[in-house]
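Support case: user asked for a sample of complex input and structure output to validate their parser. Sending the pair below.
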Amino acid sequence: MRSMSLPPTSSDTTDCGELLVACARGDAAALRAIYDHEGGRLFAVALRIVRDRDLAGDVLHDAFVSIWQKASTFDPGRSTGRGWLIAVVRHQAFKALRTSRREVELDEAALQTLVDDGPDALALLSGSEEAAALRRCLEALDRDKRRVILLAYVDGLSHAQISGHLGVPLGTVKAWVRRGLGLLKGCLA
Amino acid sequence: MSPGDDAEAERDALAGEYVLGLLDAEQAKGIERALASDPDLAARVAFWEARLEPASRLAGQAEPDRDAWDRIAGTLNLPGSARSEGQVIPLRPRKDRNGAPTRLWDSLPFWRGVAALATAAAIVLAAVPAFRSALPGDPAVVAGPRTSFVAVLQARDSATGRDDGPAGWVIGVAADRTVTSIPLGRVEAGQGRSLQLWTLIEPAQGPLSLGLVPGAGETRLAPDRLPAIENGQLFEVTLEPEGGSPIGRPTGRVLFIGRAAPVGSSALPTRTRI
């Protein structure tokens, strides 16, 4: 039996798109390669959103089942491989959140782990052109808009949770998100 | 800004909110339905998925459980997974003290499990006339298909994910596919919760609900609930919201899980058709 341990960091040089195309042809080794290269990162994304190891394990399982079954819908002309993979795991994570009927209130432990939107954290966004571009465009936003976007994307918080956490009205959060997305789009496009 | 720009910006914002996970279930479903027939919206969603992806690194690093891959490979019945080689494996394979998966063939607990299964099957056959009537040689079923099945479901430990807890539930399948559910003892679902029985026939389609089951006493389910049964078929009881899973697949914790084994003259691990 092979070791199940994963490398501490996933390499951005892996071509997930090519592996997904191979999965669509029924190549099980390609799915395994995706798991070996991206499993840790996908699990971290799920864990951050659902905040429960067992549930995150189920999300990872369902995501890989879905990746295998839907690989043929991956379009390399439109999506990046890794972007598509992350989207699948996020989709499963939000589905799990909804069906587990999580409380709206964040507990103290959850608040401790919320994403850091400071310059040090954003320095993690490097190593590829896409990452550098996202960093530059996030840094160009004012703090409020950057924060709401990252709290939603990384921590999976809802509008209401962000509103409660930041102590600002719901309408303001929604406006910040929309305005932030508009500015990001202009910067990234 | 022209009205056209406004509409564009609105679609981008909607696609962005979808990718951020900010839409409620209803809105998200609406977007997903639209994606198939709206390439423009699909392109906007793909833009955000690709461009925001580097930020997923801010989620940090975490290592999945060591048996996570085995579960995936088992569900998908991938080449090289234990299930594709005709072995019976729990949904989450058991691990040794160091957490390393063990080879089932060499595993004493596995064979103890087989022995326990046989014993439990014998108890069920002795206790439940419905099962006995399906045995070969019984005049009542001479003309019909002769195989019936029993699954002994073991408790899953929610902390470790191990499926080798004590036997807690027995599922019987008679020759006419009548399913009998027998909790061994009393299982409390708790207020606002229901116990739901599932089976896995076609892994690609996911678990199929056989309905809600009471946590005590013997319950018969109508034969038309179970479209097929074969050796090794998975059965599980999950904890669901009152009235059952709202989405037609398990959403809650797996409480008991196990695989069906044939009862009767042919206990060989062959695929059985009925």
